[in-house]
């Protein structure tokens, strides 16, 4: 079922949700009119293949056609997003992002620096307390688990664990989907590698993970290139460590050329939460809030699910029979997620600090675009 079909089926239901959660119709009307006057929403770091964002953005445009979506640097990392806010504090032009989609560890840091403004969506009460900042400065949006995407036209034996990646048969094949000095996805891949060696999430996982990548690099198996769907298809990076939703989306996009397989490593099932936030300096604050309302409505959440992400309101949607069966059937088997570990914000922060500061000294591989 397409996101546009979902939008049409759920439009009436969405209005009911807003009312049920205490967002009066006139408040939404005022928000819509404010956004209409602004005429634009500026996003950043939202590649269309990530978490189904292409269809999510298309659904938002269809619902609010008066807004132009200005998409900045789709391949930016979380650190790049915050730098864009800092660099454009006094700039109300099109280079200033309104909204952010960042790794969990970046939310509290951005809040402490005064880069975020609080806002609570109408469905606020259905977002788990542990996945949101109490005053609405940031709030969880979706999560996935770390996985391997493998080009099976090139790789004969699909690795099923991080330790497998050290085997000589994978020489010049393994890459990260980001730079571990700036990309949340890559930073947490290092955490997962450390956990695979028995380390607890946090500083310990960072140290063990950095040692793993040092060994991988010294063995000649690590490719210091930011991996994308294209680099895997071309054979530059036949094995990519990435979030499952990215890996599954890329696999589908290949349509069998090349043949590809996604597997969750047996020695570490790391779940990672991303968060949404509105820039404290957003040039279009009403459009930003309207975007958040859409993302956290049933239709927005199901749009992410269609892109293989588990939306933060997933349990609430399932409990209320709002998830179409075909979307549930398209997800990987539930048992793949049973051993998933959700690190605390303190553990994520400790791991992030140790990885970003230690990568160059320990691993010594300069990851390039």
Automatic annotation (TrEMBL):
Signal sequence residues: 1-19
A single GO cellular-component term on record: outer membrane-bounded periplasmic space
Domain of life: Bacteria
GO-annotated molecular function: thiamine binding; thiamine pyrophosphate binding
Species the sequence originates in: Halovulum dunhuangense
Record's keyword terms, sorted: Signal
One GO-annotated biological process of the protein: thiamine transport
Protein's UniProt name: ABC transporter substrate-binding protein
